TrEMBL record:
Coiled coil regions in record: none
GO MF annotation terms: diaminopimelate decarboxylase activity
Keywords noted in UniProt: Pyridoxal phosphate
Cofactor(s) needed: pyridoxal 5'-phosphate
InterPro entries on file: Ala_racemase/Decarboxylase_C, De-COase2_N, PLP-binding_barrel
Organism classification: Bacteria, Pseudomonadati, Bacteroidota, Cytophagia, Cytophagales
Domain Orn/DAP/Arg decarboxylase 2 N-terminal: 62-309
A matching Pfam family: Orn_Arg_deC_N
GO biological process, one term: lysine biosynthetic process via diaminopimelate
Protein name stated in the entry: Diaminopimelate decarboxylase
Length: 460
């Protein structure tokens, strides 16, 4: 076969901001994921393809539990379904001991179908219907109340139930994070949270078991967690001393950052994100000083999402074309775009060529295949000169992409889980036209038979 001629060239040393891992050039080839060859995976399951590493999922979970359990005696993780609710992923975490944290009726059903016992499902979210509240109450799940209308609805429902529904109050508070996430739950500082708690206790119809907050996401400072833990602990104290109601658990939500790099950040995420050990230290330290007797320390629940799954996910894909833009910049079109990588709106994902395709590198704009202007994955990334058919690996895409992906003008691809031995298991099929067509219905008057036949004009 005739080799393509490559003009000899002195490779430009792309210094970029240096850090302990060297420069930010992404030219390094990544040919395998967990021992499985990228080329083989794409040949077997099609391109593009999401790949998840079971080994990494379990490692992340075990490290997270260790970070907190070594510092605080009673810790429980609840897997945040919306971060990645593929059944296989959820089941890995449930096998490791995680409860389920769900934010919709759909996710609640998924948790039940994954075999999670009702009492181990925490039901968050601002949009629970009456039927969903009823189902959760009947299954003895904990309903995390978001607003007064939900509280009134549940109080009404509770009259007809044999058992008192268990509830927690979602609190939003000033933890020094701005803009403050005050749209979920009851505000602490203006007395709304206390008002809700008092009504719950006074009603006698609900069992108040927990206090919950989720102060934000991708938090780059540990301090707000100390503030939030202190405020929830104080609130729990008030419940005990003023309402004679001991609080069984404090739920500090999620929000711990993955090691992805935020768009426009000067340093890569591996350098800037505090570790889970650092977050655990602040939270545990605060709770140990909060005045609880050792045997009365509340259970600490965490709903970590992205930090547990982001770096276990990869997106493999293929170059469709390269072209020059009007200003001469090199552009590369990939077979996946923002339709599959929703998080590219926030992250500069690391993208690697899946082979040693070329020694020349150049700054490239990365576009997806969508026919819309916003479908740009990277504005400028230093990559080898890729050609049609070359393959790439996008790193740390396990969180939020497989739940927020959109169908738009193409079908969602297959997803594969690599087990501990690196063997691939398909955990979601690629969508097909037939699958999507199933949902559509064409009214009778639009069916072919009903359309009056017209004679094509002929040019005789
Ligand atoms: C989204 C969400 C989480 C997980 O957040 P991460 O930032 O991914 O850790 C946890 N709890 C609640 C209530 C959420 O809405």
């Amino acid at each position: 076969m005739k080799q393509r001629y490559e003009r000899p060239l002195i490779r430009k040393l792309n210094a970029g901001p240096l850090n302990k891992f060297g420069s930010r050039s992404e030219a390094q080839a990544v040919t395998h994921v967990d021992g499985a060859a990228v080329e083989d995976l794409l040949a077997e399951f099609g391109s593009p393809l999401f790949v998840l590493s079971e080994k990494q999922l379990r490692r992340n979970y075990q490290q997270a539990v260790r970070a907190f359990r070594t510092r605080y005696p009673r810790v429980q993780f609840a897997w945040s379904y919306k971060t990645n609710y593929l059944n296989a992923v959820c089941r890995v975490f449930h096998q490791e001991g995680a409860w389920a944290e769900v934010v919709s009726g759909f996710e609640y059903q998924k948790a039940l179908l994954n075999g999670v016992p009702g009492p181990q499902i925490l039901f968050n979210g601002p949009g629970k219907s009456r039927a969903e509240l009823q189902l959760a109450a009947e299954n003895d799940s904990v309903i995390h109340l978001d607003h007064f209308d939900e509280l009134y609805e549940l109080l009404g429902l509770a009259e007809g139930l044999a058992r008192r529904p268990r509830v927690a109050v979602r609190v939003n508070l000033d933890a020094g994070v701005y803009p403050q996430w005050d749209r979920f739950g009851f505000n602490l500082e203006n007395g709304q949270a206390w008002n809700a708690i008092s009504r719950i206790v006074a009603s006698g119809r609900l069992e108040l078991v927990g206090l919950h907050c989720h102060i934000g996401t991708f938090m780059l400072s540990t301090k707000p967690y100390g503030v939030a833990a202190q405020k929830l602990a104080d609130l729990a104290w008030s419940c005990l001393t003023q309402l004679n109601t001991p609080i069984q658990y404090l739920d500090l939500g999620g929000g711990f950052p993955s090691t992805n790099t935020l768009k426009g950040a000067y340093l890569p995420g591996t350098d800037t994100a505090p570790s889970l050990d650092e977050f655990a230290e602040v939270i545990a330290d605060t709770l140990h000083r909060a005045g609880f007797r050792p045997e009365e320390l509340p259970l600490l629940i965490l709903e970590a999402g992205r930090v547990l799954v982001d770096d276990a996910g990869y997106l493999l894909g293929t170059v469709l074309a390269t072209k020059r833009l009007a200003d001469g910049r090199r552009a590369t079109i990939l077979d996946f775009g923002v339709n599959l990588l929703f998080t590219s709106f926030w992250y500069d994902h690391r993208i690697s060529p899946a082979g040693e395709f070329s020694h020349h590198t150049e700054d490239t704009v990365l576009f997806g295949p969508m026919c819309m202007n916003i479908d740009q994955l990277r504005e400028s990334v230093n990559l080898p000169l890729l050609n049609r058919g070359d393959q790439v690996v996008v790193h740390k895409v396990g969180a939020y992409n497989m739940t927020q992906w959109m169908q738009f003008i193409s079908l969602r691809p297959a997803i594969v889980l690599l087990d501990a031995q690196g063997r691939p298991h398909r955990i979601r099929q690629a969508e097909t036209v037939e699958y999507l067509q199933q949902l559509e219905e064409v009214p009778g008057h639009l069916l072919p038979a009903a359309v009056a036949p017209t004679r094509p004009a002929t040019a005789e």
